[in-house]
Queue: 3 jobs
Job 1
Amino acid sequence: MSNSASPAVGRKLSWVTKLTYALLPLSFTMTTMVMTWQMIYYTQPLAISIGIVTTMLAVGKAIGGFITPVWGYISDRMYSTAFGRKVGRRKGTLLIAAPLNLIFYVLLWVPNMPVWFYLLINIIYYGVYPGINTVVYSLPSEMTDDSKDRAQLVAVQQIGGGVGGFALSMFNAYLFKIWGADSWEPYFKIAMIYAVLGTVLLVIGALCIKERPYDETTDISSADKGAAEKVGFFGRLVSVFWNFLSVLRIKTFRNYLGIFLSQMTFRTVRGQINAYFIMFVLLLTPAEVSLSTGFSFLFGMVCVVIWATLITKLGGMRAYRLGSWFTIVLFVGIFILGLTHGSMPKATVTLVFTILITLFTLGNSGIVNAQTYVQSFVPDVDELVTGKRREGQYAGIQSTLEVIVNTVVTILVGVILQAVGFQSGADVTTQSPLVVNVLLYMYCGTVVVLAFVGILLTYRMHLNEKTHDILVAESARLRNGGSMDDVTEETRKVVEDLAGMPYEKCWGHNNVINVSNKA
């Protein structure tokens, strides 16, 4: 896609800027600690029942998922405040969310409190945290229009998160070995270490980010108000809901949404039943295939670098197809292994599955990096439609959809397995043949079918190097005072194809942002 930075963003990003951006996903170790150890902390040292804990966490995550677009809405509109214009809209949002995140993160780990306290704190924590990840995920599009820089930012984001997760698992294993894991104190002390470290990384990263300056396209409050003098609280609520839905009118986003949902769904299904597949289909134990964890991490980091390079040469959609075809071939191989493992020595099954699932890191890395890279270009189409830059809006929507997909998949997997007679606590050899077959087809079939659906959908995405160059040039022309009447026929066709609406209805002449706008 376009390799020329727009005047709104400035020069190409330095490697210092890119590496300091990595501090933001690296700070996510705080969240990884929550996801990995919170349930164990509540059910073991604090002795809260598993039913109460799972309900409490589900409620917190669900509420957080639906609050996420609110943070995207606030982040996009931070320039309407004096603080935002002085500090920056993304930087300002991070500096507001970081101390709130720290306070409620610490309160999650306070021991021996009543259940209602943990429920309340979890709800608030999961409502505050999106103020951070919404901004972090919007930054590749916010910080630059240069496609190579965006690909590198996406890669840095993946590497930062991966390094943080791996370092946490290694460091935690060391600390639990020293301090033990039977009482609440080790969990609390480890969580406090990450609270301080994560917040420091977050603030340093926030202070170093680059963002688009205050101008006509980043002042979204004018579009919200329209002819009105101000927008009241009820009007804001309506606007948040409308902005969440009205993006579906943009053709490129609809196409991207199909790609995102297909890969997100198959990766979630595979993750949900991975241990069941290993135990009940291949008749192995997770420990027997866990020896590759360290190697898989190192291999995964190499894969991210490989795909960052390939994406800049092939483009997002061709890279996505390549990663998807590679994944399909691997899971056909895993399916064959699932059918024939009974005729192989156990050591052979373990070795073959470990190789295949490790290689899946390469395919999965290509899919995730290409999808994230393409997502960073959707706001460029949105700018042509609305005349405004709304990176936060799309980051918020995507985070909410991740919560919805995770919730729906978790429920469906449970319902399906219960319907076919899955026995909790059963020995690996006592599950019925129907359960084993359902796990085999669900594990492999979901990946193969939805990866193929994603491949088909990429051919509907016409956002490539040529069309993006045209799109960015037209936005720059209109931003600098050019007339819509002077559009060339080629540009008109590209804009209408990507936007899915007549050219005359673009550049804010619609109600995509403001439902009351009659223009």
Job 2
Amino acid sequence: MRNDRRRGPAGSGRAGRAALAVLAGAALLTSLTAPAAADPEPAAAAAPAFASVNYAVAVDQSASLAPADIKAEKAAAARIALGDVSAASHISVFGFAAAESADQRAVDPVCPRTRLDAAGRESVGGCVEKLRSRKKSEGTGTDFPSAIRQGVHELSSGTDPSVPRVLFLLTDGEMDVTGSPQYGDPAHREAEGRRQLELELKNAAAKNVQIWPLGFGPYPDKEQLDTIAAGGFQKGCVDLPSARPTARKVSGAKDVGPVLEKIFAAAHCLRYQPGPSKRPPATLPITISPLATVGSIVVDKGTPEVTVTYTDPLGNKVPTTGKFKDSTFELAGGGGTVEALKIVDPVPGRWKVDVKAPEGHRSLPVGVSVLWQGELRGSITMDPPSPQAGQKATVTMRLQTREGYEIKDPADYAGLKVSSELTGDGFAPLPLRLADDGEGPDPTRSDGSFSGTVTVPKSADGALKVSGTLTASGLSADTRSEGGQVAPGALPVTTALGPVRGDGHPGDTVTANLSVTNTTNAPHTLRLSLADVRAGLLTVSPAEIEVKPGASATHEIKLRIGPEKSFDGRLDDGPLGIGGTVTVQDATDGDRTLVRTPLSVQVTPEPSLLDRYWWVLVGAVALIVVGVLVALAWLRQRRGRRDPHGLTLHLLSEDGDVLGVHTAGHGQKQWYAFDIAEAHSNPRIERRTTGRYAVQRSPEGGAVLRKNGGRTRERLTATGRVELTDRLSLALGEDSVRTTAPGRPDPVPTTGGSDDYL
């Protein structure tokens, strides 16, 4: 499956989608469980609204907390406040321990109830700094009942009951009220604490307050935390197991922030994507899904001195406030240890978060994560679209982005719930099971296409409708339906559409075969159309096909891919899958639908000049290489043909007697230099680098003699001789002119006085 890289097709009203299409609380639950209306409006096309949550954070301040624990709790509280994507949400933060004398209190208010608009997010980042570890004189037990009582009060006083209420309980220990007089005499305080905890949990459930406990360190009682999670309100923001309150336990303070952020995402129906953690300076990549309509990139800096810049997948350094291109940005917490960049309508893909810090502030790692909400869109088909009563039909619901692109990463819709049913005249609604498991009618596992089968009841008569609803935490619910008619018997025209052949570039055309059989004595007109795809990305032709009486033929259907500009830069990051639905209707038979089939066209980026003509480049390089090799071979051969090595030099007297024999070596620059020693008494040839004479083999045979410093050159043939002095001359021996291969002389034994000169 392919990835969608940018938001907003032309004319899609992106400014109007600035709000997030994620339904909250009871409104969302109602939309998911209600039966489809006669003509249900797709959720993706409905007016969007931000989902808000009221939540409180109770932070353990008992004396057992180390400085690192307190720092982690502060950062964790700031992360969930700054990372919230809704300006309509509210938060309150308070610390708790235990009141162990009359002048002590179990709860310490830190951040009063604050709306998380731009100003509120900024203020929460500062007020969480008031969290601290208590001294022994301030009461250091762990009073869970008082903490839960305070949280329920904060969440239920003067708030809208339709907005989800969530309490996060952070603790490093188990309940300890043995030092608190309010729980009675010392012998019964533990039992009284358990009794009051049970009462507070019942009250939380009655007030619709979910409780999400997080324990860290070696001492938290996981069983007790599970009891607390199960004792509060159990219905989450959607009717999915992932949104039901659960307790988590982590090993240490370093994991508090990331884990709390994860359970915060589950409680608030956000999608959560963790990123890397590195010491500055560093570039931290984080991916935003193509489904996201709003998100927050959260950066845990560790120290306020860290500076952060953000680069979108298109290479733009984005601002931290205001509008840039089609996105809106809002930064909070820039001066603290945690900051978050909220983005409405973000560019999907791989973002880069660059972090820097001055010397002395680079010891702590910087972590990055993203929280987001988005839209999930589906398309539904039934094959055949006009089945007969008693016939089996295959129903397919396929997932797409809101712009009609296929979804590349299954993690984007993890936890998805798909429900479907068949309704119609003459029978009660039939529930359907649609699965993406690669079994039965589903051809491929985990490709975002959910399929199932249904047998149309024999009592069916008239209209049919198949509908399906997609539900996933953090994604808006989407209901789709498709209508049809029960066929009265064998249809006059039958059709079958084959698969799309091949991939294509922008502007290309791909094809599929449509088989048509007309069993009547009258002509029929078939009309073709394309749905579930953004205008301009894909077109189908021909628009009509005339089928002759009694004809049976195969027609080629052409699907033309839109031009490069219609993809608006989405192909920069690689291929994309365009999803659509081809519909074929018989206009002669009351526009009866004969084919309604999902299709997928893979679009690859327009090839560059190098991609187009790589073979020319390879051929040119190959020719150059061959040319170089030939030239080197020629030069080597030419050099070998002139190499003096092996020439036998005969020194002759006036009478032609041989006075000495000398075999030449390789020489220098293909010249073997020599001189005549003791020319008047005992003449002989000796190798000398600055000799008056030099010989070189001639390519035409024989040799060339150089005399007088190179000013004179004479040819030495196999039978001739050249004068050296008035009394001496030079000739070649017979071995000097025999060869075993062109330019390669036979080896000649070295005689006394010979010397190879290298």
Job 3
Amino acid sequence: MYRLLIVDDEDIITDGLYEVFNRYQPERLDVCKAYSAKEALDWMSRTRIDIVLTDIAMPGMSGLELSEEIRKYWPRCRVVFLTGHSEFEYAYRAIQMTNARYVLKTEGYAKVTDTVQDVLDDIERAHHDSLLLEQSREQLLAFQFMAQGDYMRHLLQNSRVLDEDTDMLAREFSKLDIGLDPAQPVVLVLGRISYPEGRTYTERGEILSSVRRIWDTYFSGRARSMGITDKHGDAFWFLQPSELAEGGTDSHFIRFVEGTLELVQESCIGFLGLSIGLALSSEACRWESLTRQYERLRELQQLRSGSGGAIIVRDGFEPLDGMDCKASFADSQTAEVLRAYLESGRHDEFIQALEEVTASALKMSCKVQLTIETYYTIALMLHSCIGRMGMHGHIGDTGKLMRLNDHPSMEEAFGYLKRVAESIFLSKQTQERDRASLIVDRICQYIEEHLSEDLSLVRLAEIHYFNPSYLSRFFKQEKGINLSDFIDKCRVKKAKEMLRDNDLKVREVGLSVGYEAAHSFTRFFKKAAGLTPQEYRDTLSLN
């Protein structure tokens, strides 16, 4: 989804364009509006903006001056200058700017929408061309890439070793030619790719390489980053601002990363046909704290995204349900593999691996002790996962997990482990459905109670701690209707109720449902109800 910001100090123009574009391509274009350059810069600081449609001649700061500030926030942002001025000086200055266009207000809505459509097409072509170019490059030799990945995975698992030798990181980075600054903190991103079923190991590797190329396309220039595959098979990135970025790893850099992750996610869907769930640290962390922050992101993603999907979540450092203390796992490769499948919601892989382990264990009739150890390794892993996921009380009978003697046979015991695992998968699915329903109900209630306030996608996402693009998809998936259409229905419903009160002026009704300009409310109501507000009120008096 792309984001369009309309900026004009004339309310009637801003509101009119907002109404046109708000219904132009609701699933492709998220529309915001501002009545001054200052308000526009506030939008820039809050979320990624892809296209700005702005007047040139505005009090305080002109559109040309605004465009210079825009590039500092979002360098890829395109600007369309909309003005009543036809003087050569304005047109010449606008034409000289990179990624900028110039449209006269007198040319009408059709010309404006055509221009924005051209800009959208240009953006997508640029994305496609960048991907093709990136595919032709090789950034590192294969052996060096593998060595770097091995070392960074080592740091993720045991970053505490850095406390013992503060110069170790600088020496290792230098030897391995790792392009990150060991003296600066780092932002972390964990990505879980929803691979199509039936793909081989090699095919998954090719998909992961394509995802990395998309990542490099969007982050090159403004950020230094390094991507690896963690021990669970998920993608993981380390990021720092490039020398060209201002402000270091401050809150705007985090916003820049989050906004750019939307583009990475949408390109993965558009070009590769797959979704990727992303978890982002809310602030940069020191290198010696990598292990704990990495564990936080894994915990956050497991709780928020279930088996995967196009979601972007940011670690707010709030306590995660059921995760107050770190449980330990049996130090076994089998337990690690099963745990990874269980926590990531990979049901089929888990069941297949469990059945293979079970078959192997039951064949060891001459080594009963090994069979017993295998049972308790898996049982302890399941018991730990139930605690880590906060599922105590949500799973059926788990009392026999650590009591092997309560089972009539080893076959029954391993069958019991499988049933407990199935209950965990079912509970995760139920919790995710319940959580989704609760979130949507809360959003709907907020909309109904705040119709006179800002109900932009960005504002709703901020209030409910969502990424804007994900909120749009999530809401439609759960409610079967676009978020903007739901808001319009609520506004029409409330307006009809208020118009029954003849003591209220039509303008007062419009203000109550979010329309400051009476003419904008009239146009909106007539389009939705087929009558103007006054005509609707007159029909009520006839009944």
